[in-house]
Amino acid sequence: MSSDVTPLLEDEDLRSPINEPSEPPQTQPLAEMVLLNCCPTNSPFCDPRHWVHRYIALIFMCFLGFGSYFCYDNPGALEKHIESDMQVSTSTYMGLYSWYSWPNVILCFFGGFLIDRLFGIRLGAIIFTAFVMGGQLVFALGAYLNHFWLMDMGRFIFGIGGESLAVAQNTYAVSWFKDKELNMVFGLQLSLSRVGSTVNFNVMEPIYQSIPASYLGYQRLGIALLIGSLTCVLSFVCALVLAIFDKRAEIILKKAEAKTGEVVKITDAKDFKLQFWLLCAICVAAYVAVFPFISLGAVFFQMKFGMSPSTASTLNSIVYIISAVMSPILGFMIDKSGRNLLWVLAAVFLTGLAHAMMAFTFITPWIAMSMMGVSYSMLASALWPMVSLVIEERQLGSAYGLMQSFQNLGLAVVAIIAGSLVDNYGYLILEVFFIDSLCIALMSTVLLLVVDSSRDGVLNMTPKQRTELKRSTQEKEKREEIDGGSEDNSPSTKEQ
């Protein structure tokens, strides 16, 4: 709308034809016309307000992280080959996970900030998937050329995109499903992403073995990793498709017009509530007892329980297999029941029990790993959606990025510690270390329960209670707005 003031009509204006427009009609950009006309909005498959269209978009959201999750654990699936073909120790091998995590100590937060402030979610997701794809290619090239430093560099580049892509994925989920089936959506995203991890543990070894023995060991390793990079291409395609879906939804639902206009600043993080920082503590302390263990699990099962390499790899992937099945189911249950904090409490306790069984007993590890799979699904489905309950929507990208920055700091440090503990003290001390970490997570959850209860208690409410709280808050804001308007129109105000 023009800011110029329209002049009063003169005699010549009154004599002009009445049907002549006072200003030229605004034309819609060609790209927007194409997006709107490519699919009729009266169809449930094309209307972003319809659940069918939202769930089609959800499929692409889920596969957005497939390549990243598949390639993240490539080292775990090929640990023995990496150590033998590249001639490195366990602690050096674990550096591949540290190099992935180090850039995300900073870049995860800035990835969220860039989504909120600069790139937007669509361009951000495309850029981050490109980093994932490029990093995996450099990683594969380093193995093929027998340069371990180049493999480290590839994991560093891969890490720049990997966790920031997870921020984009979470932000997409909240944008499309907030106040709907958000816990279930987070669970389903985790489920299909972890299918990537599961497939990795079950196919990378056969891929490596299928490469002709005429190649040198490190060359076979490089070729296997290069084949794995095809999953990153799939994620890149999903980012492009999602960008089209989201742009079209923005036009139809006029999301751009509904934005607050508030500017997101990095310094906003200092205003985040205490509940958010406790969620970060739980995230770090709980996750470092899962991922570093899985990266070392295959050799642990072979040494303690006498398993063959193929059986150990299958057992090591059982956490991801179970999470692929259970995450959407548990997410649906959490959507219906609420009480997210109690679910997190149960998940942390169950993970600690699983580690205790593997550390101090010879009970078949299939039971403990199955328990860990269920608890991991429970934790992810209940923990991450709580961020949207304590952080404003305009700051969600930054909040998720900051939370994952802390998570990656923990993973980077613990990866180094875990490799050193195995080299110097063995797996029993490693398991005790993980149990200690889970005790910290348990105490942080109890503290969060106390803090949340002393405030509005929204994190542990049922869905009905959250709806009532939201309604009462909106009514209160509306009353305050009306009261403020009345004061502005009072006689004393007018006289001034």
Strand content: under 5%
First CA to last CA: what distance? 31 Å
Determine the CATH superfamily.
Answer: MFS general substrate transporter like domains
What would you call the shape?
Answer: globular
Overall tally of domains: 1
Q: Total number of β-strand segments?
A: 0
- Fold-level CATH name: Growth Hormone, Chain: A
What is the helix fraction of residues, given as a range? over 70%
Q: What structural class should be given to the helix and strand makeup? A: mainly alpha
Radius of gyration over all CA atoms, rounded: 26 Å
Q: On the 0-100 scale, what is the average pLDDT?
A: 80
User: Which runs of at least 5 residues are low in confidence (pLDDT < 50)?
Assistant: 1-25, 257-264, 492-496
Q: How would a textbook summarize the main sheet?
A: none
Provide the CATH architecture. Up-down Bundle
Instruction: Please give the count of helices.
Output: 23
CATH class: Mainly Alpha
* Strand/helix succession: HHHHHHHHHHHHHHHHHHHHHHH
